[in-house]
């Protein structure tokens, strides 16, 4: 099902509200790298995000190496960024703080 993509102003607002995220070169995604104390903390964070992602049917692209988690958010159904990515970035930022991410 198609999802509306963000206009330029809404994309800029997303980046201002979530300064730890950077716009990917093609403008169609945002990225953040998080570092945790150890693998246990990183995987605990990923588990919380995964359960939430499945509940809201919006799934991150990510990579984990020990205590590092690299996350890309984009909306495939929009061909770029949508409000769903803003909502997911907010959830991830809160979960990152709770998980002690640096
Ligand atoms: C059918 C299902 O609702 C869709 O494919 C959902 C699943 N998860 C998704 N995740 C992301 N990141 N983008 C999507 O467009 C998307 N669409």
UniProtKB/TrEMBL annotation:
Pfam families for this protein: Pterin_4a
Any one GO molecular function term: 4-alpha-hydroxytetrahydrobiopterin dehydratase activity
Keyword Lyase carried by entry: yes
Annotated SUPFAM superfamilies: PCD-like
Family of the protein in this entry: Belongs to the pterin-4-alpha-carbinolamine dehydratase family.
Its EC number(s): 4.2.1.96
NCBIfam families attached to this UniProt entry: PRK00823.1-3
Keywords: Lyase
HAMAP family linked: Pterin_4_alpha
Uppermost EC category: lyase
Catalytic reaction list: (4aS,6R)-4a-hydroxy-L-erythro-5,6,7,8-tetrahydrobiopterin = (6R)-L-erythro-6,7-dihydrobiopterin + H2O
InterPro entries named in the record: PCD_sf, Pterin_deHydtase
Protein name as annotated: Putative pterin-4-alpha-carbinolamine dehydratase
């Amino acid at each position: 099902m198609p999802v509306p993509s963000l206009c330029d102003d809404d994309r800029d607002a997303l980046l201002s509200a979530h300064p730890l995220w950077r716009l990917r070169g093609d403008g169609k995604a945002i990225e953040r790298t998080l570092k945790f104390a150890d693998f246990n903390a990183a995987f605990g964070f990923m588990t919380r995000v995964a359960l939430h992602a499945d509940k809201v049917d919006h799934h991150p692209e990510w990579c984990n190496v020990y205590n590092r988690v690299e996350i890309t958010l984009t909306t495939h159904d929009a061909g770029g960024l949508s409000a769903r990515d803003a909502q997911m970035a907010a959830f991830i930022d809160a979960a990152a703080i709770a998980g002690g991410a640096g």
